[in-house]
Design brief:
Elements: E1 4-10, E2 17-23, E3 26-30, E4 32-35, H1 47-53, E5 58-61, H2 62-67, H3 71-76, H4 80-84, E6 90-93, H5 96-101, E7 104-108, E8 113-116, E9 123-126, H6 128-138, E10 142-144, H7 156-176, E11 183-188, H8 194-206, E12 211-214, H9 223-233, E13 243-245, H10 251-259, E14 264-267, H11 269-275, E15 278-281, E16 284-287, H12 307-311, H13 314-322, H14 326-352, H15 356-367
Parallel strand pairs: 4-14, 5-6, 6-10, 10-11, 11-12, 12-13, 13-14
Antiparallel strand pairs: 1-2, 2-3, 7-8, 8-9, 15-16
Helix pairs in contact: 6-7, 7-8, 9-10, 10-14, 11-14, 13-14, 14-15
Bound molecules: the ligand CC#C[C@H]1NC(N)=Nc2cc3[nH]c(NC)nc3cc21 and zinc ion.
Residues 300-301, 304, 306, 308-309, 335, 338 line the site of zinc ion.
C-alpha cells in the first residue's frame, strides 16, 4: 500500500476532520497546506527552509518537468526527491491543468492532448499513459490522474461528455500505474452541475483510487459556487481516503475547504504574492510597498514567530522590495508559507479540540473577513 489515511477525529460541528497520511517518505498530519514547487523548487526556498517553516509535503508538475529538464533526466538523477534534495513526500499534478492553463492547446482527442509547448512552441502530446510514465520517472509519492480540464463556462453537455472521457483516461492511468510504491489519486470533475458531480464522484470511487481530488475548482468560479460544489461533492468521497481540493491557498478558501471535509490543499499564492511584495498576516493582507511602512520598525506580523518576523522589520522588507532585492521576496515567501502551514496546524488543533467553528470565527474577525 503506497499510502494509508488514518482518521483521527471528526468535528461534531461540520465535515472537518483531522488525520494522518502515512507515506513512504513520512507521515503528513492533516489538514495540510502543500507549497507548490512547479519546476523542482518552491521558488526561492531551500528544502531546509521549507522544513524549518513546517512544510510536510510539496508539489511538482508533470507538464513543466516533462518539458524541462525532462523526466528521463530526473529519473537518471535518482528521482525528484534526490534531484531537488527534498526527502519528505511529494505530490505531482498530472499535466492536464497545466497544459490547459499554459500550453497552447491544438486539440483534445480520446488519445490525449496535443499542444504547443509554451517554451519553444514545439508540438507535444500528453496522454494518460504518458502522464503516469512521467510521474513514475519522477518518483512522487502521490500521482494525480490525467484529467480533461473544463472551465465553469463550459456547457452542461460538454461537461457531461468530458467527465466520461476523464473516467476512461483514469482507467488508462490505472492500467499504466505499475509502481505500487506510488499512490494514484482520481480527480472528480462535473463543473458546477451537482448531478454531474455526483456521477463523476460515484464512478471515480468505483475505480478505488488511493485518494480523491475535487477538480475543476479555483478556475474562475465565484467563491459561493466553489463552496456550494465543495460542500456537495466532498461528503460523497470515502471517509477512509485523503480528499484534496486543488489550487486553493487563501485563508478563507482553506477554512471553507476543511469545513467541507477536505484534507489537502495547494496553491502558488504564498510565494507568488511574496514576489509582488505582499504578505498574509494575522491581521489581514499587508502590501509592504505602502509608504505607511517606511519607518515602521515592527515585525511584518507581531503575532508570528517565524524567522522573518523574529529578525526583520516592515521598513527593512519594504526597502528590499523597493530596490528589488531578492532577499525581499525570500523573506516574504518564507513568512507566507509559514503562515499558511501554521494556519492549517492551528485548524487541525481546533478540530482535535472540537472547536473548529469557534477558531474560524476568531481568525476571520482578526484577519478582517467579517
Ligand atoms: C478543470 C480542472 C482541474 C484540476 N485538474 C488537475 N489535474 N489539476 C488542477 C490544478 C488546479 N489549480 C487550480 N487553481 C489554481 N485549479 C485546479 C484544477 C485542477
Ligand atoms: Zn512571520
Amino acid at each position: 500500500m503506497a499510502i494509508k489515511y488514518e482518521l483521527e477525529k471528526k468535528s461534531s460541528q461540520c465535515e472537518a476532520r483531522a488525520g494522518v497520511i502515512h507515506t513512504p517518505h513520512g507521515d503528513i498530519k492533516t489538514p495540510v497546506f502543500m507549497p507548490v514547487g512547479t519546476k523542482a523548487t518552491v521558488k526561492a526556498m531551500t528544502p531546509e527552509e521549507l522544513e524549518d517553516l513546517g512544510a510536510q509535503i510539496i508539489l511538482g508538475n508533470t507538464y513543466h518537468l516533462f518539458l524541462r529538464p525532462g523526466d528521463d533526466l530526473v529519473k537518471k538523477a535518482g528521482g525528484l526527491h534526490k534531484f531537488m534534495n527534498w526527502n519528505k513526500p511529494i505530490l505531482t499534478d498530472s499535466g492536464g491543468f497545466q497544459v490547459f492553463s499554459l500550453g497552447h492547446i491544438n486539440k483534445i482527442t480520446e488519445e490525449g492532448v496535443v499542444f504547443q509547448s509554451h517554451i519553444d512552441g514545439s508540438k507535444q502530446m500528453i496522454t494518460p499513459e504518458k502522464s503516469i510514465e512521467i510521474q513514475q520517472n519522477l518518483g512522487s509519492d502521490i500521482m494525480m490522474a490525467f484529467d480533461e480540464c473544463v472551465y465553469p463556462t463550459a456547457t452542461k453537455e460538454y461537461v457531461a461528455q468530458s467527465l466520461e472521457m476523464t473516467l476512461r483516461w483514469l482507467d488508462r492511468c490505472i492500467e499504466t500505474h505499475t509502481n505500487k510504491n506510488q499512490a494514484l489519486f482520481g480527480i472528480v470533475q462535473g463543473g458546477l452541475f451537482k448531478d454531474l458531480r455526483k456521477k463523476s464522484a460515484e464512478e471515480t470511487i468505483k475505480r478505488n483510487c488511493q485518494g480523491f481530488a475535487v477538480g475543476g475548482l479555483s478556475v474562475g468560479e465565484t467563491k459561493e459556487e466553489m463552496i456550494d460544489i465543495l460542500r456537495f461533492t466532498t461528503p460523497l468521497l470515502p471517509e477512509d481516503k485523503p480528499r484534496y481540493n486543488m489550487g486553493v491557498g487563501t485563508p478563507d478558501y482553506l477554512f471553507e475547504s476543511v469545513e467541507a471535509g477536505i484534507d489537502m490543499a495547494d496553491c502558488v499564492l504564498p510565494t507568488r504574492i511574496a514576489r509582488n511584495g505582499a504578505a498574509m498576516t494575522s491581521h489581514g493582507k499587508v502590501t509592504i510597498k505602502n509608504a505607511k511602512y517606511r519607518e515602521d520598525f515592527t515585525p511584518l506580523d507581531p503575532e508570528c514567530d517565524c524567522y522573518t518576523c523574529k529578525n526583520y522589520t516592515k521598513a527593512y522588507i519594504r526597502h528590499l522590495v523597493n530596490v528589488n532585492e531578492i532577499l525581499g521576496a525570500r523573506l516574504l515567501s518564507y513568512h507566507n508559507l509559514y503562515f499558511l502551514t501554521h494556519l492549517m496546524e492551528n485548524i487541525r488543533e481546533s478540530i482535535l479540540e472540537d472547536r473548529f467553528l469557534e477558531y474560524k470565527e476568531e481568525f476571520y474577525k482578526k484577519y478582517g473577513y467579517t
